[in-house]
Predict the structure of N-acetyltransferase domain-containing protein.
Amino acid sequence: MLKGTRVGLRDRREDDIPVLRAELYNDVVNAARAEGRPWRPVTANDPQLAFDNPPENLASFSVVELEGDTLIGTANLWGIDTHNRNAHIGVGLLPAARGKGYGTDVVAALCYYGFAVRGLQRLQIETLADNEGMIRAAERNGFVREGVLRKSAWVLGEFMDEVVLGLLAGEWEGSGAA
Ligand SMILES: CC(C)(COP(=O)(O)OP(=O)(O)OC[C@H]1O[C@@H](n2cnc3c(N)ncnc32)[C@H](O)[C@@H]1OP(=O)(O)O)[C@@H](O)C(=O)NCCC(=O)NCCS
């Protein structure tokens, strides 16, 4: 398990699946805003939930509170590119777990995984320009805003701007994650 200060990132387990499906992936508004693709109903064997044969370019974790081992969401390092040595970060917390500092901690743990475990040199986050929680969680970990992709996301009937944030290995200050 990867450990942040208050969160752990571990493998996906069977009893995570109904919770993630009900509280995260079947929330149409959240999924449409967070996923960058049209929402569709998620089945139990959907690759977002369970990975029998995970693709090489994806590392997908379930997030738990260290105290109590309660499931609170998902964390992904996706688009892992071993030639250019970069990858993207994605985080999805269950509604009850948002706004408590866990997202910041999850990003820290994913940085440890990307930079220290995988030896990457660049991590990137794309998020809707109005997603202040995600932007702040990234900035708290040293990510800098690199640009705005104007009207690049179709979200529930409108085009929205996305922000690109990046962090380089040499800028990463590490953390309590291990
Ligand atoms: C986005 C998300 C990962 C952020 O994690 P979080 O645990 O809620 O955020 P944190 O509690 O760590 O907050 C980080 C900072 O953002 C601020 N913040 C959090 N939610 C906020 C909100 N809705 N509006 C404004 N600021 C917010 C916090 O006050 C904190 O600021 P600080 O560092 O100045 O104290 C989480 O809310 C989530 O999973 N949301 C739904 C899915 C999603 O949007 N995923 C990202 C898709 S790219």
Q: What stands out?
A: The longest strand covers residues 144-155. Residues 30, 34, 91-93, 98-104, 127, 131-134, 136-137, 140 surround coenzyme A (CB under 6 Å). The two ends are 9 Å apart (CA to CA).
